[in-house]
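User: Hi! I'm working on a homework problem where we have to compare a predicted structure to a textbook description. Could you give me the structure for the chain below?
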Amino acid sequence: MGQKKDLKSIQVKYDPGADVLYCYFDKAHEGVCVDVAEGVLLRVDPYDETKVVGFTILDLRERSLMQRGFDIPLDAELAKNPI
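Assistant: Happy to help. Predicted structure tokens:
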């Protein structure tokens, strides 16, 4: 497995027109997309492909949140020190 890294922040953006969820670790920056599943793209650092910088999920609404009763936009709070 890869090395663990403490994240300073996670940025999550949802484009309702395109129905795409973007997630960036620490800050949004250049990345190379790797197709890991249908409609799921992993973004890796172009100079170090072992470093994941974020991910993108296409057709989010169609995937499962709406089917499971969640509304979009999804409001969530992240605990700084989860128990």
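For your comparison, note the following. The chain has a mean pLDDT of 78. The first helix runs from residue 60 to 65. Good luck with the assignment!
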